[in-house]
Structure formats: structure tokens, C-alpha cells
Design brief:
The chain is an alpha/beta fold and 87 residues long. Helix content is 41%, strand content 23%. Strands 2-1-3-4 form a 4-stranded parallel β-sheet, sandwiched between helices. Helix 3 links the parallel strand 3 and strand 4. It is globular, with a radius of gyration of 12 Å. The termini are far apart.
Length: 87
């Protein structure tokens, strides 16, 4: 399983990486995680090769909803999970 984390908050992205690593160890599921601190970096590299994308809603430059529209133009099947630290 190939997973992307797109989040400008390094601490939040690291917490999610820890959860995914734990899931991998407990289930024996092979997971490859790629983390991006900027949506522009993710979109430049994205070619429709992720199964799940954890996407921060509020990021500098573009919000997660705009990025989700770009993702859908290239890949209609990847699961998009919106994440945020907003109240």
C-alpha cells in the first residue's frame, strides 16, 4: 500500500507516520509512506500512484480542497482523507 501524507505541520505528519508504522507492524501490511510539507511539492510528484492520501485542509499556498480537485483530475480512485488541526 502506498500512502501520501500532505501536511505542513511536521509534528502532525510525524504523528500520523507513527500511527501508520504501528498499523503496519500489528497487521503485517506492507506500507510505503511518502510525506510532503507543501502541496505544490506533492502535486509536482503526483502521478496517480497512491492508494490513500492524507491531506491537510489548511496549508499555505493552497487549501486541501483545491489540492483534492487536482488529485481527482489525475486519479479517480485514490482514497482522500482530510486531516486538520482546526477546531
Amino acid at each position: 500500500m502506498h500512502i501520501a501524507i500532505v501536511d505542513d505541520a511536521r509534528e502532525d505528519a510525524g504523528r500520523l507516520e507513527t500511527f501508520l508504522d504501528r498499523y503496519q507492524r500489528e497487521t503485517g501490511t506492507a506500507i510505503q509512506v511518502s510525506t510532503f510539507a507543501a502541496s505544490v511539492d506533492f502535486l509536482e510528484e503526483f502521478h496517480g500512484d497512491y492508494d490513500i492520501i492524507f491531506l491537510d485542509i489548511e496549508m499555505p499556498g493552497s487549501d486541501g480542497l483545491e489540492v483534492a480537485h487536482e488529485i481527482r483530475r489525475k486519479d479517480e480512485t485514490a482514497a482522500i482523507v482530510f486531516i486538520t488541526n482546526m477546531a
